[in-house]
């Protein structure tokens, strides 16, 4: 299936979990995929190799996306090889503290919000000039249902992602006249390496509370991201779409 052949897609955090699944899926649809990673070079190279094995186009580029000079170097590296970026998907996972409010310091709480928003801001800022020139662009940020549905110990992540959702709405409003859509995909619990730290008891409770009776796979989230990265979503912008099997219904 090649619905958007030749378009250049940057996947921030594209070497693991949801990012890796998205990288593979967009490549299967004919996009040239940039697998961004911060430290997991082996994982990034494995994703690129799997895309090449299916005759897709991909390259891995290291950059810490909450470091502005590295973000700009990343975009320049892509431009040198393939030209302007058409699609930017931000799945990058920035570390955060899992603590109660009483235990958490301002540095841990405020630091997570700062790093999350700096990455989203710089990535979006770096790719939009070329998108404006083309009159086309797709930007997708990945949040979490914790932005709307609090869970013990997750206030730093949930608050940062809530800020990300509102940032997306403002940017969508400004960039819409240029043919650029900006949306959020907001998964619930996902079966990834991080999700593996959940206890079996907690996972059983989540499954029992989910109408579709399972934990999401990275591929489930990637399918929704791919929709917003493609032409079929051309009249959707500023949205926040949950991918949680009905666990939380807004």
UniProtKB/TrEMBL annotation:
Keyword Repeat included in the entry's annotation: no
UniProt-listed Gene3D superfamilies: NAD(P)-binding Rossmann-like Domain
Protein name as annotated: SDR family oxidoreductase
SUPFAM superfamilies (UniProt xref): NAD(P)-binding Rossmann-fold domains
Entry keyword annotation includes Mitochondrion: no
Family classification: Belongs to the short-chain dehydrogenases/reductases (SDR) family.
Signal sequence extent: none
Keywords: Oxidoreductase
Organism, as annotated: Actinoallomurus oryzae
Highest taxon listed in the record's lineage: Bacteria
């Amino acid at each position: 299936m090649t619905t958007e052949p030749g378009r250049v897609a940057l996947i921030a955090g594209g070497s693991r979990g949801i990012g890796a699944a998205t990288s593979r899926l967009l490549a299967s649809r004919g996009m040239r995929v940039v697998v961004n990673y911060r430290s997991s070079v082996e994982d990034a190279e494995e994703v690129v190799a799997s895309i090449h094995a299916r005759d897709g186009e991909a390259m891995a580029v290291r950059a810490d996306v909450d470091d502005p000079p590295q973000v700009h170097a990343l975009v320049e590296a892509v431009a040198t090889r393939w030209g302007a970026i058409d699609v930017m998907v931000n799945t990058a996972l920035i570390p955060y503290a899992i603590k109660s409010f009483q235990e958490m310091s301002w540095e841990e709480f405020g630091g997570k919000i700062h790093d999350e928003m700096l990455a989203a801001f710089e990535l979006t800022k770096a790719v939009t000039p070329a998108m404006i020139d083309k009159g086309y662009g797709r930007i997708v940020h990945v949040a979490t249902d914790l932005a709307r549905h609090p869970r013990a110990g997750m206030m730093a992540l949930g608050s940062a992602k809530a800020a990300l959702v509102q940032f997306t709405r403002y940017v969508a409003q400004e960039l819409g006249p240029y043919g650029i859509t900006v949306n959020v995909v907001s998964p619930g619990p996902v079966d990834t390496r991080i999700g593996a730290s959940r206890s079996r008891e907690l996972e059983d409770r989540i499954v029992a509370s989910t109408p579709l009776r399972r934990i999401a796979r990275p591929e489930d989230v990637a399918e929704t991201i791919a929709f917003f990265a493609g032409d079929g979503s051309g009249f959707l912008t500023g949205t926040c779409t949950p991918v949680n099997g009905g666990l939380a219904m807004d």
